[in-house]
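Subject: for your reference before the review

Hello V.,

The reviewers asked for a structural picture of the protein, and I figured it would be easier to keep everything in one thread rather than splitting it across files. Below is the amino acid sequence we used in the manuscript, unchanged from the supplementary table.
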Amino acid sequence: MQYSAIDYINNLELLPHPEGGYYKETYRSSSLIEGNGEFPGGRAFATAIYFLIEANNFSAFHKIKSDETWHFYGGSALEVIELDVFGKLTSTVVGPDILNGQLLQYTVAAGNWFASRVLNGAPFSLVGCTVAPGFDFRDFEMAQRQDLLNSFPKYSDIITALTR
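And here is what came back from the structure prediction:
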């Protein structure tokens, strides 16, 4: 069965996400990790969301303090672009075509800058994201374009394309 982006947005009750696209939290562990220096105030063991991005949009470069695993659900493949702490740029495709190198799930390491976009101009991609320790907006940092350009000047084209 084929659904449109608006079908998913409406039926899954997705909301606009600050990095771009739409999301809905579907799980937050009731068990908590005690607060410490890295996660003051404690965090849920894990969280999960639906995330939908349309072709005319992108998920802007950002980073979080936890690992984030992406799971493909529907629509078209999604490109996840990362800049690691050593300045290495990688691109990973999360999608259904496993015979051609796409992955059904992929984990972005904590602390990496990352962004995503629908591959090849297709209409949309629907994925899920599981974060452990659980996502908290206190751990979320949206990239400032000029700061990333100063840190990674050789990637100016992709940074300019995937920051706001």
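For the response letter, the relevant points are probably these. Residues 5-11 form the longest helix (7 residues). The longest strand covers residues 67-75.

Happy to draft the paragraph if you're swamped.

O.
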